[in-house]
Structures are given as structure tokens and as C-alpha cells.
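Side project, low priority. Logging it here so it doesn't get lost.
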Amino acid sequence: MEKQKLVEKKYLFIFILITSLFALWGFANDITNPMVAAFQTVMEISAAKASLVQFAFYGGYATMAIPAALFIRKYSYKKGIMLGLTLYAIGAFLFIPAALYQQFSFFCISLYILTFGLAFLETTSNPFILSLGSKKTSTRRLNLAQAFNPMGSLMGMAVASFIVLPQLYSDRRNAAGEIIFSTLSATEKANIRVHDLDVIRNPYVAIGLVVVLVLVIISLTKVPKTEIQPDQKNDAKTTLRNLWHNHAYREGVLTQMFYVAAQIMTWTFIIQYADYLGINKATAQAYNIVAMILFLCGRFIATALMKYVNTRKLLSVFAIGAGICALGAVCIVGMTGLYCLIGISIFMSLMFPTIYGIALENVDNQDASLGAAFLVMAIVGGAIMPPLQGLIIDQKMILGHPAVNVSYILPFICFCVVFTYGVRQYRRQKKELLNAE
């Protein structure tokens, strides 16, 4: 029996081209996470209000995922990518007037529009990567492509850690490790706010220019016929009915929502977790980078393991590991708790593409674009849960325990949902194989 290739030679160029887009939304995701803490300080707002950055960011996915799918069904993946890149660039350039007017709501609107573009890119790229070859290797192929997402994330984190956060005057501390910004006069605060918002603005403008360059390259690239979805498509009503009756898909959308919520909560509030231990934002962001390196390594390890271990079983095992680390972050006060929090990342590494791949594995190609849209829409979990975690963190102490530690019970619950999905799909697959015999 001939061994099936992960990516066939005829698809190699388009695979590389589309995979490069994964880094672009990874950069946007993970330069934005530490900005929650930055806005909290410089705009003098609560953790709950600052987390509206994430509500705007991931709310954009929820708003635009379905329109993106309908656009792609009517036109093509290439046009969907080009429109996505255009919206990405517009959102990034809107940071210029946002910094000028110093309005927190304006920054949120800019991120909201930026993620319209990301919704188009994700709705397009993920199902396309799955389609480039055999269904038996589709989940592994998506895990490989998704490995380039944390590479972009690492770039975003590096820019935040080494360029943005160290330049923020509002985060400067006294000898006791306390932030001095709140003790300054109104005039001093105003001057610092102008400076810091310009610092936050600059990387978004820079990535906007990069996105414009990529847009030009994509527009000049001839996309092969294999990239276009099937000529015959089910009508939307038939597609929705097919998706609803597909148990693996329906449960996968719900599980993806909980997983994304866990991922965003884990990474967004590492800085607040470290802040309770007296660690400044720039140093805390270095721990975030370590978490992303573990995430990247975990993704390559998981892709390799999938060659030998059932993907559903592997998903369940990784969910157990993530849950144990989350409980450590909740229960242990101090650096060990922080290490547990960082350790969650290696177990999260395979979850998004694996849930995505399992959910779409038995979805007909005619239904794939709209099916992908609901999975991208599930990213709304990253908009809903972080503000709730922020409200918990704002309590400071809960029953004598640091509220920031207690808040990580929310990711633990999410990992329980992922574990349940993995187990259910493994049992269902096993039953189907027995019936086939």
C-alpha cells in the first residue's frame, strides 16, 4: 500500500503561500493580548473594562465569519483572502486616529474592523488546507500549517515584550515595585498618555504596511483550479441541515468556543498573574513568550504523534494535562503557580486544529465553507469569557486567595469540555469502525 503524503507535490506551492497567512493573524492575536494590561494602566481603567479589547477583537470574528463564508461561496477563496487582507490593513491604520484622539473605544473599534479581515482569512485558509490532499491526513496537515500561526504569535509577543512594553512610561515603578503613574499630576499623566499611546500604535501601523505588501503579492499570484471550492454547492438551507445533523461537527463548534476562551484567558492574564507577584509588564511578557515557545514546540510534537496515536485520544490526553496545569495555577500561589500557568500552553498546542479537523472530517466539500465559518465564529468564546475573568480579577481577594489565581478556574472548566469532546468522538469513531466490520 502506497504511503499517503502529507502535502502532494502539485499542491506544495499553494500550501506554502496560504500557510504564510497563518503567521499574520498569529501576530495580531498575540501583540494584542498584552495590550489589555497596557490599556488598563495608561487609560486608568479596570481589568474588566480593559478586557473589552478582547471582546472587540474576538467579537469581530463572530460578526464576520458567516458573511465571509457567503462571500467565498459566491466568489472564490482568492477574493476572500484579498478582502480579508484589505480589512486587516484598514483596522491597523485606524490606530493612527485612535492614538491621536486618545479614545479607548476608538482602539476597540479599530481592532473590531481588523478582525473582520482575520475572519475572512481564517474562514478561507483552514478548510482549504484540509482539502489539499487525503482526508486521512487532513488533521495532521492542518496541524502543520497551524504551526506557523505561533511563529507569527512569537513575533507579535517579541515586539510587545522588547519594543512596546519597555517603552511605556506608565508602567515605571518605584523601589518597592509599585507603579508610580497613579501618583502623578494630571498634566504629567496627559504627557505620558500621549507618549504611550503612540508606542502602542506603531506596531499596528507597521503590520498594516506588511499586510498591504502581502495583498499585492496575492493579487499577482495565479491560484490553481484546485484551490476553488466545488462547482456544485448545496443551498444554504441544505448545508445548515447537514451540519446540524452531523454530531461531530455540531459538538465541535461548541467545544471550539470553550477552547478558544481557555486559550485567550490563559495568555491574556499572565501579565496580571505575574503583576501580583511584583513582576513588571515587560518581564511578565517574557513569560508569555516562553509559553508561546512551548505552544509552538507542542504543535510540532503533536503533529508527529498523530502519525502513531489516534487524534481523538491525543486530544483527550492533552486536555487532561492542560486541566492539571490550570488547577496548579489556581491552587498554588507564587512562582510555581506561574510555571503551571505557562505549562498549559504545551497542552493547548494541538487543540484548535485538531478540534477543527475532527469537526470537518465528515463534512461534505459542498458544505465546507459555511461549516468552516461556524468554527471560526466559535472564536467568539475569546470575546465572552475574558471580561468575566476580568471581573473576578478585579475582586483582588476571594476567600483569602488571590482573585487572579481563582480566575483560572474558568480555563479549567473549558478544558473539561475539550476532554469530553475528545472522549466522545473517540468512542463514536471506535463504534463506527466496529459496525463497518
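Brief comment: The longest helix spans residues 186-220.
Revisit when time allows.
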